[in-house]
Amino acid sequence: VQLQAFGGGLVQPGGSLRLSCAASGFTINPYWMYWVRQAPGKGPEYVSAINIGGGWASYADSVKGRFTISRDNAKNTLSLQMNSLRPEDTAVYYCVRDAGGGQWDYWGQGTQVTVSS
Question: Are strands 111-115 and 9-11 parallel, antiparallel or unpaired?
């Protein structure tokens, strides 16, 4: 089982990035999927979740209205569109598989997002 996130980088405040996550070794279809981030010196923070079919999503209050999660089960990928980025969004972003009941069992290799002028 592997999850590889990519698409991070350095962006100015107010800018946008699109993160993607490619899954291998399993199919994402039966699983809820999450984006989680971790800023330097802090613990993991929930960002967003999406249900199996992709028709329902939830967001942390800190990103609501700015970030959009999506999934393509046919391509076995997860995405996160991030707009109006702020310095406090700086973190390593991870895609995470939910084994059920909110239990995160696999974390991908993260991608660094840095928002700075």
Answer: parallel
pLDDT at 101: 84
**32 Cβ contact list (under 8 Å, min separation 6):** 49, 50, 51, 52, 98
At residue 49, the pLDDT reads 97
Q: What is the pLDDT of residues 91-115, one digit of tens each?
A: 999 999 998 888 888 998 899 999 9
The b/e string for 102-113 (b: 16+ C-beta within 10 A; e otherwise) is eebebbbebbeb
Confirm if 60 and 47 have CB atoms less than 8 A apart.
Answer: yes
Enter the tokens of residue 26: 């399993």
Residue 53 CB partners (closer than 8 Å, separation 6+): 73
State the amino acid at position 109 in one-letter form.
Q
- The CA distance from 110 to 113, in Å, is 10
CB 13 within 8 A of CB 87: yes
